[in-house]
Structure to design on (282 residues):
């Protein structure tokens, strides 16, 4: 095996240890007197470092420094593009799944906050959800079946209900179900409560005329209304002005369809505790 040449890099040009190159060259002279004389002369007159183009390597050494061809680089690029194309759908699906799970976690947090506030203050507390049949596009896109706030009874004051938390929205791309399994409509109408609650306000858009659905907790932290266990569904898509679901993920093909990409939570009437759950049976 021929000794290796150590390349040196200087100002963009590849340089070599010339003395070492000459020593290697002597090994390939095969006893030719003229070639030996030429190699020895080069060893005496050349400096230790010399720019590569002015020194000719023997063919046996030149073949070791082969680069990638254009075809090889194109093949590698094609393989990378195929792998990337296969990866993008998986990443997108994971992102949407994370959005549904985040929405479920946010709602559970709000429900737990309302329950704790009711126990702390000794006053009925409400998780309030607005729905809209009309309004500006920005309001519908951001708040319709996608937002909630916490209110609390404030007796002796006007209005008799005060807002405890700001209006919060779900992650982009997900909404609370308006129909099918575990819809928002399963919650209570505030005007039908005892006593009725009629002073709820939607502050982000005073020109909008929302309808409200509420989950009411009593001072013991129990769900007072609706008078049963509560389930809510979260799906990939949005709810149109007429209340119909527009599913952007997969569906089960039924009529009307149920979204396949969905998450559910349940609230116990007795304990008031909320937790993620499997899809409840309709």
């Amino acid at each position: 095996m021929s000794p290796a040449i150590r390349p040196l890099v200087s100002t963009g040009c590849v340089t070599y240890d010339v003395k070492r190159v000459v020593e290697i060259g002597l090994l390939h002279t095969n006893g030719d007197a003229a070639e030996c004389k030429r190699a020895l002369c080069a060893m005496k007159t050349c400096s230790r470092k010399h720019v590569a183009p002015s020194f000719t390597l023997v063919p046996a050494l030149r073949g070791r420094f082969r680069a990638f061809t254009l075809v090889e680089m194109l093949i590698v690029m094609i393989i990378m593009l195929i792998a990337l194309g296969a990866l993008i759908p998986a990443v997108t699906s994971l992102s949407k799944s994370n959005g549904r799970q985040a929405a479920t976690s946010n709602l559970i947090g709000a429900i737990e906050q309302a329950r704790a506030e009711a126990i702390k203050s000794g006053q009925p507390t409400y998780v309030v959800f607005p729905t809209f049949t009309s309004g500006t596009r920005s309001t519908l896109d951001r708040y319709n079946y996608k937002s909630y706030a916490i209110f609390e009874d404030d007796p002796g004051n006007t209005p008799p209900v005060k807002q405890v938390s700001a209006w919060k929205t779900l992650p982009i791309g997900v909404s609370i179900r308006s129909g099918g399994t575990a819809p928002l409509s399963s919650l209570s109408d505030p005007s039908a409560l005892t006593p009725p609650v009629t002073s709820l306000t939607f502050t982000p858009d005073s020109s909008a005329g929302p309808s409200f659905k509420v989950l009411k907790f009593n001072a013991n932290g129990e769900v007072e209304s609706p008078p049963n266990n509560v389930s809510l569904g979260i799906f990939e898509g949005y709810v149109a002005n007429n209340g119909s679901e527009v599913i952007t993920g997969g569906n089960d093909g039924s009529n009307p369809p149920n979204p396949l990409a969905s998450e559910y939570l349940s609230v116990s009437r007795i304990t008031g505790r909320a937790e993620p759950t499997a899809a409840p049976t309709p």
About this structure: The first strand starts at residue 7 and ends at 10. Residues 14 and 216 are 78 Å apart (CA to CA). The domain at 95-277 is CATH 3.55.40.10 (minor pseudopilin epsh fold). Helices lie at 18-27, 33-45, 59-62, 70-121, 137-143.
